[in-house]
Automatic annotation (TrEMBL):
The keyword Membrane applies. Keywords: Membrane, Transmembrane, Transmembrane helix. Coiled coil: none annotated. This is Glycosyltransferase RgtA/B/C/D-like domain-containing protein. It comes from mine drainage metagenome. The keyword Transmembrane helix applies. The chain crosses the membrane at residues 12-34, 63-85, 97-116, 122-142, 147-164, 170-188, 200-221, 312-334, 354-375, 381-399, 406-425.
């Protein structure tokens, strides 16, 4: 204690304790509120994409069974990733993954706080709460590929905070972690490569602390560049012979015709408004029909007696995320270009990039985020919420780079995000916590089901069919997947229905063409797709291909 009192850093440490505790507690509280949310269908879908490749012979069949003829073989570079995700899928049940996902999402908070600590500007770290406003916490607890992007950026902030560090015991694990997060992210989803420039730059900056620049560049390039073509080929998404599915996929991405049809002004502001609506309460979540089928709807007059306009603060914070990140990016591009013209010479640009690390990192983070937001014609709610966290990380880096009187700008920013996150936490506690424990809508599954009974019913149904469905090749739904996930060649029934609607084939035609053995799913799904249900146990039904064919050929 005597040493600390005599230390010049003592006052700084004391002043840091309050914002560190506040930010950490608010982030944990917001995530914890959503920990009981039901299992979102996409969680099962991405488990099937990434987790089943190993046991399906290193062929990533995807979710659309009609496109399985175009299924790519996993490159030898991604064999370890396929094995890692197969172990995750094998040993962690869908209802047991929440806490792990929450921990990965929370990783951006200590990373931002440490960056602010190392830059002696802890108040800048409060901007990380911009990713925890409104209903964005509902996305940060579901197991989607965006969670790996958050881990990647968290490690980038750690790498930036280590500027000047020379100890191998710290540099090497951080660089390996950065590479590993990018490696796994690029395997799971094509959007994982959006952070390749940022990851590459951060690893080079780290390894430059131990190696000459050319050696650091060569090591980083050798470890990351070969992944790009293999990731692109793994997620190519072609589906030869089915133009209906091609139309579906084209409708999910940006086309310049969209701007020509709506006009640039309308298209631009519609993009911004949809981004904000995806994380706010109004007008989507407070309607009788929610904006997404995942977050519960509440009464329209839920905020009638509220003393504050919470949605105003959420909208203001979201606008600040978008505009603030854009302003920092433009300013940093100008600053780096100014240094290039000032220093001149062949190495001027390289010197500017390596010395102005926070500026370069902000540019390499914000530009890909904006590019993907534009490219995503769906304006998916899960992507908006995850990218709000990425933009808040960019704000943390930008604010931590301020000097002199410019640092005073951090006070209003910190107050805005503290107030908005605190109000969001209170609103979520009042509106959603009482109803989400047993909530199920849009195909989602409550975590509090009797999963042992479900597993017993699935096992019994698989034995009752003729022949028994023990060898795999089964159409499953989100409820039955957990009990069948160790069997090969499974197909999700939800995406089977999607293909039926776009290619105008019957369920039988698709199942027969791909040689599947049967179906075990909820009876409601099977009835909707006109699949016979000769075997029933509670809400689950089953049929083998032989029984299905016999039912169709049986004379009436």
């Amino acid at each position: 204690m005597i040493f600390m009192r005599n230390s010049e850093n003592y006052k700084f440490y004391i002043l840091c304790i309050i914002p560190v505790l506040f930010v950490s507690l608010i982030a944990v509280a917001v995530l914890w509120q959503w920990s009981d949310l039901p299992i979102y269908p996409d969680e099962i879908a991405y488990r099937m994409i990434s987790g089943r490749t190993w046991q399906d012979g290193l062929v990533q069949k995807g979710l659309l069974i009609l496109c399985s003829a175009n299924a790519p073989h996993v490159s030898w570079l991604y064999v370890p990733a396929a094995w890692v995700f197969s172990q995750y899928d094998r040993f962690i049940a869908p209802d047991q993954v929440r806490m792990g996902v929450m921990a990965l999402s929370f990783s951006v908070v200590p990373a931002a706080l440490w960056l602010g600590w190392r830059r002696r500007h802890i108040l800048a770290s409060v901007a990380i709460l911009g990713g925890f406003i409104g209903t964005s916490g509902a996305v940060l607890v579901i197991a989607r590929p965006e969670i790996l992007l958050l881990c990647n950026v968290a490690l980038v902030m750690v790498a930036l905070a280590l500027s000047g560090e020379k100890r191998k015991v710290i540099i090497v694990p951080t660089a390996v972690g950065l590479w590993g997060s990018f490696y796994l992210s690029s395997y799971v989803h094509l959007e994982g490569i959006m952070l390749f420039p940022l990851t590459f730059y951060a690893i080079v900056c780290l390894t430059c602390e131990l190696l000459p620049f050319l050696a650091a560049f060569a090591v980083t390039a050798g470890g990351t560049l070969p992944l790009l073509p293999f990731s692109a080929s793994l997620h190519h998404g072609t589906c030869t012979g089915y133009p209906g599915i091609a139309v579906l996929r084209q409708s999910q991405v940006f086309h310049f015709a969209d701007i020509q049809t709506a006009g640039f002004k309308n298209w631009f502001f519609n993009k911004i408004n949809l981004f904000i609506e995806n994380i706010s309460y109004l007008p989507g979540v407070i309607r009788k029909v929610p904006l997404t089928p995942y977050v519960p709807s509440v009464k329209e007059n839920a905020f009638a007696n509220s003393p504050y306009n919470i949605d105003f603060f959420i909208s203001l914070s979201a606008y600040f995320l978008l505009i603030g990140a854009f302003i920092f990016t433009i300013f940093y591009v100008y600053r780096i270009c100014f240094h290039v013209f000032k220093w001149k010479g062949a190495g001027a640009g390289l010197r500017a990039l390596l010395t102005d690390r926070l500026a370069t990192a902000v540019i390499l983070l914000v530009l890909p985020v904006y590019a993907v937001l534009v490219y995503d014609a769906q304006n998916a709610f899960y992507r908006s919420a995850a990218f709000a966290v990425l933009l808040s990380c960019a704000l943390v880096m930008g604010l931590a780079d301020l000097t002199g009187r410019w640092r005073l700008l951090c006070w209003p920013v910190a107050l805005l995000f503290l107030i908005t996150a605190g109000m969001s936490w209170r609103a979520n506690e009042r509106l959603f916590e009482p109803i989400i424990a047993g909530y199920e809508q849009g195909g989602s599954l409550s975590l509090f089901r009797d999963w042992k009974t479900v597993a017993a019913d699935v096992s019994a149904l698989s034995r009752e069919t003729v022949p028994p469905l023990n060898a795999g090749g089964i159409v499953v739904d989100d409820l039955t997947y957990g009990a069948l996930r160790n069997r090969p060649n499974l197909t999700p029934i939800t995406y089977l229905g999607l293909q039926i609607s776009y290619v105008h084939l019957s369920a039988w035609a698709i199942v027969e063409s791909r040689g599947l053995n049967g179906v075990i799913a909820r009876c409601a799904y099977m009835d909707a797709l006109h699949i016979p249900t000769p075997h029933r146990r509670r809400e689950l039904c089953a049929v083998s291909r032989r029984e299905w064919l016999a039912g169709m050929t049986k004379p009436r």
